[in-house]
Amino acid sequence: MHKPPLHDLSRRERQIMDILYRQGRATAAEVHQHLPDRPSYSAVRAMLRVLEEKGHARHEEQGLRYVYLPTVTREKATRSAIRHLLDTFFNGSAEHAVAALLDVSAGELGPEKLDRLAQLIEQARKEGR
User: Fold this and answer.
1) Among the residues of 3-91, which ranges form H helices?
2) What is the pTM of this model?
3) What is the sign of the dihedral through the CA atoms of 85, 87, 88 and 94?
4) Is the pLDDT of residue 1 over 80?
5) Is domain 6-70 in CATH 1.10.10.10, yes or no?
6) Pairing between strand 65-70 and 26-27?
């Protein structure tokens, strides 16, 4: 089954996936506990089933409980979200995105962080990325 990208999920589905990524694994009760503006517990269980049907989550049985896990690694989901962000807001340009991040974060970046960013840029240059 082809799964839609995470950015195609509803707000609630994304919130649930965020919880699963943060926790690594969680029961429906744990997901329910961490959700803002909590829907009913049965609604959380229904959304977890939908996320399973869409291929974003799976469950393992632990005794009488289901424990839910994301099916895609956090790294792969992050790359997909970054790609969507680049395409949506920066016309696919990493340069424009980095410039915007630097503009927004300028006051927060001390010399050590700027040096680290310069190292990452140099490493990318050497690797031909």
Assistant:
1) 11-23, 28-34, 41-53, 74-89
2) 0.68
3) positive
4) no
5) yes
6) antiparallel
